[in-house]
Every structure is written in structure tokens, then in C-alpha cells.
From TrEMBL:
Record region (Disordered): 1-34, 54-75
Gene3D superfamilies recorded: 1.20.5.110
PROSITE patterns the record matches: V_SNARE
Segments forming domain V-SNARE coiled-coil homology: 31-91
Biological processes per GO annotation: ascospore-type prospore membrane formation; vesicle-mediated transport
Protein name as catalogued: Synaptobrevin
Biased composition (Basic and acidic residues): 55-71
Gene source species: Xylona heveae (strain CBS 132557 / TC161)
Residues spanning the signal sequence: none
């Protein structure tokens, strides 16, 4: 039962002697402390990675929100641009109709008196 009083450590060589020498015990403890330090370092890196992943997720959520806002504003811009395009087309057509009517009136003013003068 003497072996059960100490925790099991695979880096402490086991032998027939129950306690081992003091140098072996100190070397095993130093090795155990080194391993514990490495485990703490790994845990610290893992926590840092988890925090970075969480922050990245928050940034992605923010980016998704901004993308949705940009999509909404682009749809509004597209509608406004179509309205302006239709207004400009209508204004252009009115101008063309006015020009055609003016040319026809000018031709009527020139041709009708000439035809009336030739009949007399």
C-alpha cells in the first residue's frame, strides 16, 4: 500500500524500492512541473485562440449587418436611378415632339403661302 500513497507519475522510474532515491524524486518532480508549465502554456494559447475566434465571429456578424445595409441602400439607389432615367427619357421625348411640331409649323408657314400664291 506504500505505492498508493504517492500519485502515479510515468516519468518517475519504478523500481523495487518503494520511495526511490531523493535525486530521482526531485528529477521526477521537476519533469512534472515542466509538463504542468507546458500544459498551462497550451491552455493559455487555446484560450487566446478561442477569444480570437469569438472576436472574429463578432466581426463577421458586424460585416453581415453592414452587407445587408449596403444591399438595401443599393436597391434604393437603383430605384432612384431608374426614376431619373425615365424622367430624362420623357423630357427628351417632349423636346423631340416640340421640335417636330415646330418644324412642321415652319414648313406649313412657308409652303401654304407659296401654294396659295401660285393658284392666283
Amino acid at each position: 500500500m506504500a505505492e498508493h500513497s504517492q500519485p502515479y507519475d510515468p516519468y518517475i522510474p519504478s523500481g523495487n524500492n518503494a520511495g526511490g532515491s531523493a535525486a530521482q524524486h526531485d528529477a521526477g518532480r521537476t519533469r512534472t512541473e515542466q509538463l504542468q508549465d507546458q500544459v498551462k502554456d497550451v491552455l493559455g494559447v487555446m484560450r487566446e485562440n478561442i477569444n480570437k475566434t469569438t472576436q472574429r465571429g463578432e466581426h463577421l456578424d458586424s460585416l453581415a449587418t453592414k452587407t445587408d445595409d449596403l444591399h438595401t441602400s443599393s436597391q434604393g439607389f437603383r430605384r432612384g436611378a431608374n426614376r431619373v432615367r425615365k424622367r430624362m427619357w420623357l423630357k427628351d421625348m417632349r423636346m423631340r415632339v416640340c421640335l417636330i411640331v415646330a418644324i412642321i409649323l415652319l414648313l406649313v408657314v412657308i409652303i401654304v403661302p407659296a401654294v396659295v400664291a401660285t393658284k392666283h
